[in-house]
Amino acid sequence: MGEALVAGLRDAGWDADGIAVAEVDADRRRFLEDRFPGVRIVPSPAWAVADAEVVVVAVKPADVGSALEASAEALPSDALVLSIAAGVPLAELERAAPDRPVVRAMPNAAALVGHGAAAIAAGQRADATHLEIAERVLGAVGTVVRLPEHQLDAVTALSGSGPAYVFLVAEALVEAGVLAGLPRDVAEDLTRQTLLGAAQLLHGDDSAAALRAAVTSPGGTTAAGLRILERRGVRGAFLDAVLAATERSRELGDASRR
Fold first, then answer.
1. What are phi and psi of 171, to 5 degrees?
2. With bands split at pLDDT 50, 70 and 90, how would you rate the model's confidence at 73?
3. DSSP, residue by residue, 210-236
4. What is the rounded CA–CA span in Å between residue 73 and residue 107?
5. Model confidence at 30: pLDDT above 70
6. DSSP code of 149?
7. How far apart are CA 44 and CA 151, in angstroms?
8. For the chain, what is the mean pLDDT?
9. CA dihedral 197, 112, 157, 100 (to 10 degrees)
10. What is the pTM of this model?
11. What residue ranges define each of the domains in the chain, with the CATH number in brackets?
């Protein structure tokens, strides 16, 4: 995700010499140096954060504390700490970066292709300006919304886990196409384009319900298929999936606070 952010920032016109990346793995450093010419790639967090206006914490949740501790002395007192580490609450981030403004974010995998969906929540020292900065950074790879922290578990379940739900639907559509007699490569191509086209339609002014109704002719093929999906409880299954993922996110957050 950190690599996706760097790519998005460069594509959005941010100067390479204004970006620094801390990467402890030597092979990964060489890869990043080749991919992002001009971006400063260093082995230590402390070397990356000196004079920084924004510090993006893009490490595994278990490594957040050690990463911030390693950069504590070099971290400017007014630097914004923007964490994209899944499940790490604001309280823990503020303990690891005392007296700094902190914003917690929940992005998703689509940031890798510049179409991410992220939600941000402000810590006690973060103000409207800090939220605007966080929006500019994450906006380089997609859409950003502001929410209170207690709603981030629902965001994790909906847009964080959402791509996996869509991939499962894609798998099922491909298998259905094959079962109906299509060659697998044709079923895969049609499924990809169908989902891409449907997503583009959803970017218009009409709601999902209105779009579904518009392509469902009375007594037609789509109506026959939708009848089966409703009978099999597909709508309810998605509701249950998001609620279950929300609860699991809460459990993981509680565990990290113990």
1. -55, -45
2. confident
3. HHHHHT--TTSHHHHHHHHHHHTTHHH
4. 28
5. yes
6. G
7. 33
8. 94
9. -140
10. 0.89
11. 2-151 (3.40.50.720), 162-247 (1.10.3730.10)
